[in-house]
Amino acid sequence: MRKGLVAANWKMHGSRESNAALLDALVTGLEQAGLVNNAETDVLICPPSVYLDQVRHLIGNSKLLLGAQNVHSEATGAFTGENSASMLRDIGCSHVIIGHSERREIFAESDSFIAAKFSAAQTNCLIPILCVGETQEQREAGETKAIVLRQLAAVLQSAGIESFNNAVVAYEPVWAIGTGLTATPEQAQEVHALIRNTMSEQDVEIANNIQILYGGSVKGANAVELFAQPDIDGGLVGGASLDAEDFIKICSSFR
Fold this sequence. Notes:
The chain is of the alpha/beta class and 255 residues long. Helix content is 41%, strand content 15%.
């Protein structure tokens, strides 16, 4: 049985004061509930890069995992404002989010650039969380399958199916991010199954073992129903991850 993963994507939110308060509540609540580093679920915190070191210290020995929201594809160089995979590993990250829809849409990151980031992360022993998903217009045009498989294929063709032995995939319908809309459990399951079945055409064992997260307005109120689907292994959580009570409820939804 696949272990669950709940990843908190804080996006561009936080301050030293608010981070400390949020993590104090999270660590206490998760530990009391027995939800840190247990047999069922891992919990990952992905703060803005300027707070990675602070969060690493606040997490302490709680066994929460630390991740980054972005990484550059190059190891070093004149890339002002960017962070390399080796830097993220050096500061204590275990995971990094790759190809989030906001990076694809707002910053015009191409499939090939995202594939290069994926490989750079793995070269430096980081676990990439590869995000794929369609916009509302693409869904309405019946293009969901084509878009998701194109984004997935870019990495499969570049890095190979074996690379997914040490990776995570997150399906995030763009139309359900920050809008209050959520794909129904059946809609989400359909795409998760598509991803897993497509990977199984190349390697059944890898496809069966890989964690596929859902990322689209996951909340405490809908997490149980979403996580009950056979191919949904957890969540990439945005806004709800900034609310300790709601995030703890999400993390407890595997039980």
